[in-house]
Amino acid sequence: MKNIGIGLLFSILWASASVATKFGVQSAAPLILANIRFFIAGLILLGFSYAFMRDSNYRLPNRKELGQLALFGFLNTTLYLGLYVYAMKYTAAGIGSLGVSTNPLIIVLLSSWWLGRKPAKEEWVGILLGIIGVGVATYPLLKNSVTTPLGITLLMISMVAVSAASVYYATVKWELPNLLINGWQVLLGGLFLLPVTFLFADYTNMRWDGQFWGSVLWLSLAVSIIGLICWFHLLRLDTVKASLWLFLCPLFGFFFAWWLMDEPITLFTVIGTVLVVAGLYTGQMKKFKPKG
How much is the pTM? Predict the structure, then answer.
């Protein structure tokens, strides 16, 4: 039950990112929004860890660990979150949510190649049900959305990046606590993105208003800190099964869009939700079977 609760919390927080980002890019350029978010999250995590955690594991990373954190941060923060935030400027929210649902399939394919992990039949069935469910739920938004080829391209590249980051994370025998891993990878990812922001960000229409800071703080604290800590916990249990929780993200995203942006919930949304839940159960049904 604990892991189910963590999975649900992750799905809710991760789903809120698309709506929060859509609000934020109305006040600031995507790269500026992303960089400020990364630095706030990284500094809070590292500051809290080194100031208040007295365990000996809370130490500075060694050279090998710094290299691992740099690669993970580049994939998970610079490429994935940087491109995702930028893509949301040119991509409708529904299509952005649909993109998230492709992660489990990409993770399965990367895992089979990178980790030599053969997916179980139930996991393939769960993935297919989830993809069909998300497709059904997203159909009305796809039909009526306005987007650009640039937005779709950036979104798909970001999905490959986060899938690769998830698989890479599973290959490393981390000795640092999750708080430090998250703090360092977010901060390093922000540093890698900083030159791009300086060179290419549009500063002309920047507004330091309440909408901007509300978006930044939610993305930093709720998504980049709490959401990613939940995600790392799930990844350590099982990479492919963790990815199944991404199926719920578009559906929670529809709820937030309805609640905060007045987007309608249709019959397609209901049918898609049922299919996604069925896919989640099928993909993890071995956990529900009694051991004997």
Answer: 0.81
